[in-house]
Amino acid sequence: MSGDVLTSFTVYGVIAAPAFQQCTDAAAYVNRTYPESYAVSIQRDVPRDFDERRAQWIAAGQLATDEHARSDVLVHNVATNAFMTAAEFLALVMLTTHYRADPSTDNAESYRARAQQSWLDFLAARDRQYCWMDVTVDDVAVGRVWFELFSAVAPLTCKNFCELCRGTSVEVTLPSASTSAAAEAGSADQAAGTRTLLTYKGTTFFRILKDAWVMAGDVTAGHSGNGGYSCYGRTFPDESFAVAHDAAGVLGMCNDGPHTNSSSFYITRRPLSWMDRKYVAFGRVMDGMSVVDAIHAVGVKHNQSPLATIVIADCGVLDPSE
Known about the structure:
8 helices, Glutaredoxin, 2 domains, Cyclophilin 12 putative (CYP12), Cyclophilin, single chain, 8-stranded antiparallel beta sheet, alpha+beta, 14 strands
């Protein structure tokens, strides 16, 4: 690059995006080869955090085109306060330096593989657990929600959520008027001493409070929100109130008063500080807030139950080390 003017950039992007991996390679090259001309810093984001950054830039009118507004990698020119897409940044670097991007198919596959590994390495380095849920509305798939769980803060609560996402067999101690009917329903509402599979899979979102939260996770028969069962027994104690309800996408345990956590959970739609020290929050939506928005958009009855059937069609746990 000609001249002695130092040009500073920040590359923001979703870690799992191949274009972000390519931009980080280009940034490393110019920082190493042209230190008098380039200073490029890297900001690695999970999808949720990047979406929030991008939304702020859109609201401020800082993104010039629809392509910028849709991009999962954005490069900020510190001097001009302008943003570029990954393609625009790479074109600039190739125009002004000896860096050359390899457009071959093999190289594209390599970037995809490296981006995926970078994502898994990033997750594994954090002291957290990760779960996912696929959601349908009236049998139509609306997408996947990814959760990150703050297991260092609330390990027992996080374990319960993971076990129910994975599916766990426990000895149920709830009596039932009809053991056979409950067993046929695949619920936890069975006779005392019966071992049964507890899982969020097949359960429903049973309550939507507009502009507040959505609720799901009753693993007992009917999935109405009036039951619930944990991997520890009928209920388990409040573990920690360290996580604040300070944003949309906070994940927490429903309860019927102190120390009555079971399986039902909520996802907030906005900051709800009045819930602090009353409900145990233990995670947040890491990706898939658009799915939560779709759930929230469903119409409700007078009792806040949804007019459509909203099902957790599948769910599971991600172990980044595997």
